[in-house]
Design a protein that fits this description.
- InterPro entries: ACAS_N, AMP-bd_C, AMP-bd_C_sf, AMP-binding_CS, AMP-dep_synth/lig_dom, ANL_N_sf.
- The chain is an alpha/beta fold and about 625 residues long.
- A seven-stranded mixed sheet has the order 5-4-17-16-18-19-20, sandwiched between helices. It has a five-stranded parallel sheet with strand order 7-6-8-11-12, sandwiched between helices. A four-stranded antiparallel sheet has the order 23-24-25-26.
- The radius of gyration is 24 Å and the shape is globular.
- The protein starts with a helix and ends in a 7-residue tail after the last helix.
- The mean pLDDT is about 95.
- Bound molecules: coenzyme A (COA) and adenosine monophosphate.
Length: about 625
């Protein structure tokens, strides 16, 4: 048995051999002659001369290897009271059928397809059908509103959209089709085809000539075979929040993603093919792409597609019920979900009702895992709780506790150590590597490993500016933190205007853009404030136009609605205060950092560059009025 230290040192000494060895786990049409392609540095590529197909590796080859009768997908939907299983053979048939329908509508290799789906097996089938054709999918999370969907349609220019007629949230059915129709209406780019999976809770009206029913689209159509793609051909684009309202289209290249994800299934998640893996996330997020869809299937495991919430569907025992019922071995969720369960079941009484003895590890990611929550889970769930840190951009864990190689001591509050492929360091303002224990910008030495983003969709310059410019030779993660003497990383905060609400990454800039469009708002700022359940919650500060004498509560209500209509319910924007003016530096920069410290009840000082120190006291006063424990 090798140790983590040996494996990491082995990678560092010879990255090329490390990744070429890992690449042996993949079926290639033409195997790669080399791992790294540095010919376009700092735009690095991996396995660039290989020819492959991701769908083949995730589906067909398991059928060819005799796993056809094994469950590929287990569907469990407490919210609709439905359960089901899809074997690898059935998955192959269903994916080939849908791929045939897309092909019949002219979708070819390199074309984009937007997918807007809730947590049903058809979401994975849609992703895999695109991969089968070499078409590039872009999944949009169901909690985004039509304008956000429109921005993605405009940027990705999809030839087709695949959608379900609705998603189901506790207490309400979210009709998707009107959102899609509105998004297409807003967008200058008009996709030629919309394939709709009709759900009985809210069947959609189809637009003639453009929209097709999921099953009707497949009638009389030849199932499609896997199309060979190049190693660097994109598998998908996934949009994520940046500093501005325009989301970043993270590109995922095919070959490196397959190699890296397959490697993680044993090394990080300690899985064996045939076992059940469950990631309780959503296909709209990177965790869903990597660990609901691709990694478990590439590895020949069984993945659980769960349509429900950690609490309220029907209670805080639902996760443990699923773990018992399907014999889940490794389980992955967000700290927010555990906090919600802990709030409803503090003594873990519901955990005791179920036999969860098959589960070996509980993995957390998506936001900072607070030590309280980790310790509660360790005590009541009784397995090692592994926090790991990653980003949409990387597609897999940068730092983790590699349980399948060696379970290192768990230090609550730290996502543990760098994974092979990542040279993670904490840098000072001048780009110097800081000593252990000192807080700075967390950066990764280039090149990033296989599976991580090679660039942003149609935006090479933005990629360089956003990630590579501040520290030449490094990828800037946007997180601040420190590394201790044992090499454990601690993530403390973001260095940009991104906030993390219930494990969802949101741009305060995008929320500000939505607020600024309100006719009575002259100026605004949005910050994240500490929230017991969701980690952070957005809070808005609004300066109204001179002479505006409208009822303030009314304006706030309209602003809350505006954010919901423009960005979506996922923004969870519920609170705003009206202030006379915003605290700014003399050069006009809004002091969001100090405002956050005031709102969180932390000690704060006015920076020397402040224009008018009284503005900060005014912010404190307005926050006290809404009940926040602000210090003077
Ligand atoms: N489609 C439509 N609306 C959605 C949605 C979807 N797929 N997902 C969430 N929403 C809506 C919710 O219904 C809610 O709307 P509301 O304002 O009308 O109540 C809003 O978006 C905010 O949702 P959420 O942040 O999920 O809060 P919640 O109060 O509904 O639930 C938790 C709280 C803790 C149960 C929930 O946040 C949760 O499960 N968190 C874990 C998140 C997670 O797994 N993230 C993975 C990232 S790796
Ligand atoms: P996303 O791209 O949505 O996955 O969000 C990535 C960001 O979430 C990271 O840059 C961090 O700010 C935060 N994040 C993700 N995982 C963790 C973790 N384990 N600990 C602390 N922060 C995390």
């Amino acid at each position: 048995m090798s140790s983590y230290a040996d494996v990491y040192a082995g990678w560092k000494q010879d990255p090329e051999s490390f990744w070429m060895e890992a690449a042996k786990a993949i079926d290639w049409l033409t195997p790669p002659s080399a791992a790294l392609d540095a010919s376009r540095a700092p735009f690095y590529g991996w396995f660039a001369d290989a020819v492959c197909n991701v769908c083949w590796n995730a589906v067909d080859r398991h059928v060819a290897a005799g796993r056809g009768d094994q469950a590929a997908i287990i569907y469990d939907s407490p919210i609709t009271d439905t359960k089901g299983r899809v074997t690898y053979s059935e998955l192959q048939e269903r994916v080939a059928g849908l791929a045939g329908a897309l092909k019949a509508r002219g979708v070819e290799k390199g074309d984009r397809v937007v997918i807007y789906m809730p947590m049903i097996p058809e979401a994975l089938i849609s992703m895999l059908a695109c991969a089968r054709l070499g078409a590039i999918h872009s999944v949009v999370f169901g909690g985004f509103a039509a304008p956000e969907l429109a921005v993605r349609i405009e940027d990705a220019k999809p030839k087709a959209i695949i959608a379900a007629s609705c998603g189901i949230e506790p207490g309400r059915v979210v009709a998707y089709k009107p959102l899609i129709d509105a998004a297409i209406e807003r967008s200058e780019h008009k996709p030629g085809t919309v394939i709709v999976f009709q759900r009985e809770q809210a069947p959609a009206t189809l637009v003639e000539g453009r929209d097709l029913d999921w099953f009707a689209a497949q009638e009389g159509v030849e199932p499609a075979d896997c199309v060979p793609v190049g190693g660097m051909d994109p598998l998908y684009i996934l949009y994520t929040s940046g500093t501005t309202g325009q989301p970043k289209g993270v590109v995922r290249a095919s070959a490196g993603y397959m190699v890296a994800l397959t490697w993680t299934m044993k090394a990080i998640y300690d899985m064996q093919p045939g076992e059940v893996f469950w990631s309780a996330s959503d296909v709209g997020w990177v965790v869903g792409h990597s660990y609901i869809c691709y990694a478990p299937l590439l590895f020949g495991a069984t993945t659980v597609v769960f349509e429900g919430k950690p609490v309220g569907t029907p209670d805080a025992g639902t996760f443990w019920r699923v773990i018992e019922e399907y014999g889940v071995r490794s389980f992955f969720t967000a700290p927010t979900a555990l906090r919600a369960i802990k709030r409803d079941d503090p003594q873990g009484e519901l955990i005791k009702k179920y036999d969860i003895s098959k589960m070996r590890y509980l993995y957390l990611a998506g936001e900072r895992a607070d030590p309280d929550t980790i310790e509660w889970a360790q005590r009541h769930v009784g397995v090692p709780v592994i926090d790991h840190w990653w980003q949409t951009e990387t597609g897999w864990a940068i730092c983790a506790n590699p349980a399948g190689i060696e379970l290192l001591p768990v230090k609550p509050g730290s996502p543990a150590v760098a994974m092979p492929g990542y040279d993670v360091q904490v840098l000072g303002e001048g780009g110097e590597v800081l000593k252990p224990g000192i807080l700075g910008a967390v950066a990764i030495r280039l090149p990033l490993p296989p599976g991580t983003l090679p660039t942003l969709w149609n935006a090479d310059a933005r990629f360089e500016k956003a990630y590579l410019e501040t520290f030449p030779g490094w990828y800037e993660t946007g997180d601040a933190g420190l590394i201790d003497e044992d090499g454990y990383l601690y993530i403390m905060a973001r260095t940009d205007d991104v906030i993390n609400v219930a494990g969802h990454r949101l741009s305060t800039g995008a929320i500000e853009e939505a607020l600024a469009g309100h006719p009575d708002v002259a100026e605004c700022a949005v910050i994240g404030v500490a929230d017991k359940l969701k980690g952070q919650a957005p809070l808005g500060f609004l300066c109204l136009n001179k002479g505006c004498d409208r009822d303030q509560a009314e304006v706030i209500k309209e602003c809350v609605k505006r954010v919901r209509d423009i960005i979506g319910p996922v923004a969870a924007f519920k609170t705003a205060v009206i202030v006379e003016r915003l605290p700014k530096t003399r050069s006009g920069k809004i002091l969001r950092g100090v405002m956050s410290r005031i709102a969180d009840g932390e000690a704060w000082t006015a920076p020397a560059t402040i224009d008018d120190p009284a503005t900060l006291s005014e912010i404190g006063d307005s926050l006290r009025q809404i009940g926040l424990p602000v210090r003077s």
